[in-house]
């Protein structure tokens, strides 16, 4: 009853922003991401008959705070499914997602935890079933089951059985790069979970966001299949700006941007003026991710590293899905 799994994080090109069911983590909109090879979590889950409670370590340190509660509640899903109530587990996670880079480590974290738990309990889940389980740990994590380009279909049902991710193109379909631009920034004060809820509940711009999504999703998929970088980049950048606009229409209003966020956005726009195709996307935090093509790497990195307020630039290629160690 022991297994180790490795999962990579992902960056959304079409953002997941809002839930229709908070308990089951059912989204209001479908989303689409690229899995990244630079950042991952490796997790070992060992269910043992003699344990009195779950034990969770992250980077070799025992965790007892709210993150522990989230893990142990999540393991209950698997215990109930496998009819192993009362069998506790040792969970050891190593996180290679630099928190400063502003990637949600919950994506790779819950994907690795789900995969290792399912394997340890010999559940023999399909990828769709595993993605559905993973979704209930953290929404964006359900996309990290697969490598390459991945769509999370929101589904229609109230029970969430049709809300899971599928791969739309494998890792070797297209070699694009993502630079995570780390800013000398302070901690964010609105978590993505709270931020998306406030937006759904109060933002006067939320309907506009939802209305615009089916077209973005359809067109970006066409762009990915055709490896049309300018089409994909332009849609991703516009989609990110729309997501962030919804936060300004919320009450109380908020933004994840800092002054340096905008400086980097302007650097990217300037790269395009110099005929280098580069596009930005931003998650629920101040850091900016920049999409570009391999042949432009040196020029893109030079420009980003020399932008004021940038402390580090971390490069990633397209990554693969879950693997077992
Ligand atoms: C995304 N984000 O699609 C979007 C874009 C942030 C902005 O998914 O509440 O950690 O655990 O389902 O997945 C971050 O939210 O939220 C996120 P929960 P999650 O990647």
Q: Main sheet?
A: 8 strands, mixed
Order of helices and strands: EEEEEEHEHHEEEHHHHEEHEE
Query: How much is the radius of gyration in Å?
Result: 19 Å
Number of E-state strands: 14
Hetero compounds: ligand 2P0
Helix content: 25-40%
Structural class: alpha+beta
Number of helices: 8
Number of domains: 2
The fold-level CATH name of the largest domain is Ribosomal Protein S5, domain 2
Quick check: average pLDDT? 96
> Distance between the terminal alpha carbons, to the nearest Å?
14 Å
CATH class category of the largest domain? Alpha Beta
CATH hierarchy: architecture of the largest domain: 2-Layer Sandwich
Note the beta-strand portion: 25-35%
Q: Which spans of ≥5 residues are poorly predicted at pLDDT below 50?
A: none
Shape: globular
How would you describe this structure to a colleague?
- There is one protein chain.
- This protein is α+β, with helices and mostly antiparallel strands.
- About 35% of the residues lie in helices and about 25% in strands.
- The chain has 8 helices and 14 strands.
- Helix 2 (about 105-120) packs across helix 3 and helix 5 runs antiparallel to helix 6.
- The longest helix is centred in the middle third of the chain and has 20 residues, at about 205-225.
- The protein binds ligand 2P0.
- Ligand 2P0 binds next to helix 4.
